[in-house]
Amino acid sequence: MPSPRKIKLWCVGADWHWFQYSFVGVSEVNRLEQRQQVNRFIHWLFACFIITMLSVGFYMKNTDYSATLYQLHKAFGVVFLSIISLRYYWRIKHPWSSVEQGTGQSKIANRVHWLLLTLMGLMPITGFLLSALSGFGIHVLGLSIVPQNMDVAGNIVPFHEATYQLSKQLHSIFAYSFAGLISLHITAALKHHFIDKDATLSRMLSAK
User: Fold this and answer.
1) Which pTM value belongs to this model?
2) What residue spans of the chain are helical by DSSP H?
3) Which has more pLDDT, 25 or 30?
4) For the chain, what percent of residues have pLDDT higher than 90?
5) Going by C-beta distance under 8 Å and a sequence separation of 6 or more, which residues neighbour residue 42?
6) Range with the lowest mean pLDDT among 49-53, 141-145, 152-156, 181-185?
7) Per-residue b/e over 154-166, b at no fewer than 16 CB within 10 Å?
8) What whole-number distance in Å separates Cα of residue 78 and Cα of residue 143?
9) Would you say residue 50 has pLDDT above 70?
10) Nearest 5 degrees, angle CA 127-CA 176-CA 196?
11) Boundaries of every domain in the chain
12) Angle, helix 104-134 to helix 161-194, in steps of 10 degrees
């Protein structure tokens, strides 16, 4: 029969292991939940920003407010370009769980996600080059990032016509590709919710 001292030590050890297990378990759950909340916040912040920028980009060509919308579009594009690296850092540090599942569908979803992230960077880069080379200049919060370029007659002229046209074409191609991939992404989310009946969309919409 164990001595009272041994019994007491065993009880203390059992209590410590229980406390340690409970504390670590709760901490891990809290960290996971916090990370999911950050993921949701970043996802919807960038989603709203991108959809707004694409909508303005498609709409601003044929409106009486073209000049104002162009300036806003360029200014917010520069801001977006300055913070996109944070989006990449977070995604690399916290990869999608679908990669670990290894199913064919999850691999396709992973490729679509990375294409979206790639276009998320290419859009503001080509947009910046397009605006910088156009000759109209770029102004953000009253600051001149890129000056205007005028000829002797006072007309706006591109800094480099060929590179300007290439940037313009690429920006347009990337915009339509981006819109198509976003539509595919939304369709897949609706499929998960209404056909597969899983919690993919619910998790992204949940505030908890």
Assistant:
1) 0.78
2) 4-59, 66-93, 98-101, 104-134, 161-194, 200-205
3) 30
4) 52
5) 87, 90
6) 141-145
7) eeeebeeeeebee
8) 12
9) yes
10) 125
11) 4-205
12) 150
Structure tokens at 118: 């790639």
Q: Looking at residue 1, what is its pLDDT?
A: 54
**Token couple for 49:** 């920003």
CA distances (Å), 87 to each of 35, 106, 121, 138, 198, in order?
14, 21, 10, 24, 26
Architecture of domain 4-205: Up-down Bundle (1.20)
For residue 128, give the amino acid letter: F
Phi first, then psi: give them for residue 43, nearest 5 degrees: -60, -50
pLDDT per residue as tens digits for the range 72-113: 999 999 999 989 988 999 888 888 764 445 567 778 888 889
Question: What are the tokens at 121?
Answer: 């960077």
Determine the Cα angle at 158 with ends 157 and 162, to 5°: 135
